[in-house]
Amino acid sequence: MQIAILAAGFTPGEADQLRRAMAAWRRKGGLEKFEQRLMDGMGVRGYTREFAQAIFRQIQGFGEYGFPESHAASFALLVYDSAWLKRHEPACFLAGLLNSLPMGFYGPAQLVQDAQRHGVEVRPPDVQHSDWDCTLEPPLQGEQPAVRLGLRLVSGLGEASAQRIVEARAPRPYRSTEDLALRAGLDALDLKALASADALLSLSGHRRQQVWDASGLQAAPALLKGAPVHEAALALEAAPEGEEIVFDYAATGLTLRRHPLALLRERLRAQRLLTSEELQQLPDGRPARACGLVVARQQPGTAKGVVFVTLEDETGSVQVIVWKALRDKQRETLLAARLLAVHGTWQRQGPVCHLIAGHLEDLTPLLGRLTTQSRDFH
C-alpha cells in the first residue's frame, strides 16, 4: 500500500485519507479518476501498466477492509499514548482533558477526582491566577506540577470576559473585586458567575462575601465610569461545607472540597451501604450493597438490553450491571435516580469487578439541592 501511494505521487500522510475516501469514491464513481492518477504517476516513474494495474487492484481490495483495520490501529495507539500520559504526566493529562471538554464518558468532576486520587494537586479557578484554559503551576511539593483550573469551567462566564480578565491583570494583580470589575470591564452577570464559582476568593474571601461584593457593584453612568466607590465593607459569615459543595457543583460541575457522599456516609452506613473501596475487598459471589452518584448509563446495541451503570463515591467508582429483566422492572428508578443504591452480588474475575444488581433504590432526596449530571447512552 505504501509503495503504491508513493509511486502515485501521494505523501505518506495521505494514506489514511485515501483509505477513508475509497468507499466514497466507489459510491460516486470516482475510482476511475484515482486509477488514472495512479497509472500516470507510476508510468512517469518507469513502472509498467500491468504492474500499476496490479497495485490498483491491491488498493481496491484493501479498501474493502482497510478502514476498520486502520481505525482499530489508530484507537490502539491513542489508548497507549493516553495510558502513558496518565501514568507519567498525570497533571498534563488532566489539563488536556479538561480543556477538551465536553468529550468521552466522564465530566470534570470524575476527571478531577481520579487525578486527585493519583496524587495530582488541583487548584480552584481564581481571577488572580487562572487563564481561560486549565494550566500547570509549580507544585508545593513533589515533581509533578499542579493543575490550575481555568475560567472555562465557570458556568455563565464567556471567553471574551475571561480573556479581558487575563489581559487586564498582566501589568499588576487586582487589588479588589471593584478593581477587577473596572479594569476588566465586567458586568454584573460576569461578577455573579465568578462569585458563584468561588473564583474571587483571593479578592473578597469566602463565597458569601464574594457574592455580596459582586452584587454591590452596579454599572455606573457614563459620566462616572471608572470612578471607584468608597463605602464601609460588610463582613459576612462563611457558609457551611454542604452549602459550599452545592454551589461548587452548580457553578463549575465539580468540587475540590470533600465528595458529597463523604457528608452522607454516616447515613449510608446505617443502611449497610459499602464504599467502592470496601467493595474491592470482597470475594467473588458475596452479597453486597453500594451507593453512589450516577456518573454514566450505557446500553450498547450488542448488550441485549443490559444496562451498565457507573456509580461514584468518595473512594472511587463502582461498575454496576443491570440485566434486562431488572431494567424493565425498575426502569423509572434506573433512569431517574441521581443517587442510586444497588443491592446485588459482587462479581470478581481477576482485576475486573462488577456489582450485579438485584434491586435498585433511588436515594436522590438525600442530595437536597445538590445538582449532578450523568453521561447517559452516548
Describe the structure.
The protein has 378 residues and is of the alpha/beta class. Helices cover 46% and strands 15% of the residues. It has 16 helices and 9 strands. The chain has helices spanning 2-7, 15-28, 31-44, 49-88, 90-99, 108-117, 159-169, 177-184, 188-196, 201-204, 207-215, 241-252, 260-270, 276-279, 324-329, 331-336, and strands at 122-123, 135-137, 146-148, 287-298, 307-313, 316-322, 339-349, 352-362, 375-376. The chain has a 5-stranded mixed β-barrel with strand order 4-5-6-8-7. It has a 3-stranded mixed sheet with strand order 1-3-2. The longest helix is centred in the N-terminal third of the chain and has 40 residues, at 49-88. It is flat and about 90 Å long. The two termini are 35 Å apart.
Question: Can you describe this structure in just a few lines?
Answer:
The protein has 378 residues and is of the alpha/beta class.
**How many structural units, i.e. domains?**
3
Task: Spell the H/E element sequence.
Answer: HHHHHHEEEHHHHHHHHEEEHHEEE
Count of alpha/pi helices: 16
Top-tier CATH class of the largest domain: Mainly Alpha
The poorly predicted ranges are 1-8
Give me the side-by-side strand order of the main sheet: 4-5-6-8-7
Structural class based on helices, strands and sheet pairing: alpha/beta
Q: Tell me the fraction of residues in β-strands, as a range.
A: 15-25%
